[in-house]
Specification:
CATH topology of the largest domain: Dehydroquinate synthase-like, alpha domain
Helix content: 40-55%
Number of domains: 2
Radius of gyration: 20 Å
Bound molecules: nicotinamide-adenine-dinucleotide, glycine
């Protein structure tokens, strides 16, 4: 087994991240994180349960834990208060106490919604992230952002609430559809642009090997992304400043997701096109060269991701929708913009003309 381990350093709320092929079925790795003696509930969805519920339940059984399962429908459209409430109802109906632990088994939708339920149930119970998509390995399972969508905005209802552990089983990628691998690659590439130009170069040379499930490359890539995210979260857990850099491409991307309707473009696809737009903004301002812009665009395209806006979406629609972005302050739209490859800044002085040119 290829095992890598790191920690998110948040004082008393620090937690480990285990990255391994077979982590799900090796409870000796993570059983120490299951400290409470109460009920254990696995929250998952109808798709993920087919492959991974039984293996996780068996793992828990092998260490003497009988886990219940709460199974939700699959899809971003179900990441809402109704299904959040369904998790709470399940916990109540099964008499889960404050000493219970919830496992979030699935992608970012299950992770975000289960984490928020764990944060709220009896004012907070333990939860463990078991991400099963590339996007959730490298982004959503780490850092404690939990949320559900509201009809008026994505991820608008939520809390910062850290898990007790993150268990990443690299074998779960074997069943993940290619479109979802691409969506995860968008977040992977993001770390190269915001933080680490050498990692960006490494991806230029090796990203095909992630697609080929090369375990050496896959574990290195997931580890490096988690390491960067852990460092950013360590420095700025609740997004007072630095953490906003993780939202590169998201201002434009969220506008695409909202315009198209949740789930039509995957989050990662929208972020991919958004990162090209933010990079074009940087190019227009002379922060990055034409060559760097082309490298960013090419790496994104090579990973089977969109590099321009949806055909049906006019440029003006971005301006109307970006006004509602969570990063905005004092009526200004805030953009994360590359200063160079490996470094970005928050910019709030972008004109409408510049934004329109960026989405062109
Ligand atoms: P997702 O959870 O919808 O999963 C994508 C699809 O893959 C789903 O159909 C799911 O059932 C299926 N699936 C999951 N694992 C599988 C596997 N191993 N094999 C086969 N199918 C599998 O989407 P996602 O991309 O993982 O997450 C997107 C969500 O994450 C969005 O709601 C976004 O807002 C959120 N997010 C949160 C953060 C954060 O910091 N909390 C960061 C980024 C994104
Ligand atoms: N995905 C953005 C964050 O965790 O802050």
């Amino acid at each position: 087994m290829m095992l890598k381990k790191l920690s998110v350093d948040l004082g008393k709320r620090s937690y480990p991240i285990f990255i391994a092929d077979g982590a799900l079925t090796t409870p000796s790795l993570w059983q120490d994180c299951l400290v409470k003696r109460g009920k254990v509930v696995i929250v998952t969805n109808e798709t993920v349960q087919k492959w991974y519920l039984e293996p996780l339940q068996s793992s828990l059984k092998s260490i003497g834990v009988e886990a219940l399962s709460c199974i939700l429908p699959d899809g971003e459209q179900y990441k809402d208060l109704k299904h959040f409430n369904d998790i709470l109802t399940f916990l109540l109906e099964n008499s889960a106490g404050r000493d219970s632990t919830v496992f979030a088994l699935g992608g970012g939708v299950i992770g975000d919604m289960t984490g928020f339920a764990a944060a709220c149930y009896q004012r907070g119970i333990d939860f463990i992230q078991v991400p099963t998509t590339l996007l959730s390995y490298v982004d959503s399972s780490v850092g404690g952002k939990t949320a559900v969508n509201h009809p008026l905005g994505k991820n608008m209802i939520g809390a910062f609430y850290q898990p007790k552990a993150v268990i990443i089983d690299l074998n779960t990628l074997k069943t993940l559809p290619e479109r979802e691998i691409a969506a995860g690659m968008a977040e992977v590439i993001k770390y190269g642009i915001i933080w680490d130009r050498d990692f960006f170069s490494y991806l230029e040379d090796n990203s095909e090997k992630v697609w080929a499930h090369d375990l050496d490359v896959l574990s290195d890539v997931v580890y490096r992304c988690c390491e960067i995210k852990a460092e950013v979260v360590h420095q700025d857990e609740t997004e007072g400043g630095l953490r906003a850099i993780l939202n590169l491409g998201h201002t434009f991307g969220h506008a695409i997701e909202t315009f198209m309707g949740y789930g039509v473009w995957l989050h990662g696809e929208a972020v991919a096109a958004g990162m090209v737009m933010a990079s074009r903004l940087a190019l227009g301002r002379g922060y990055i060269s034409e060559e760097v812009f082309e490298r960013i665009r090419a790496l994104i395209a090579r990973n089977r991701l969109p590099v321009s806006r949806p055909d049906s979406m006019p440029g003006e629609a971005f301006l109307q929708l970006m006004i509602h972005d969570k990063k905005n302050r004092n009526g200004h739209i805030n953009y994360i913009v590359p200063d160079e490859l490996g470094r970005v800044s928050l910019r709030c002085d972008v004109t409408e003309e510049e934004a329109l040119a960026a989405v062109s």
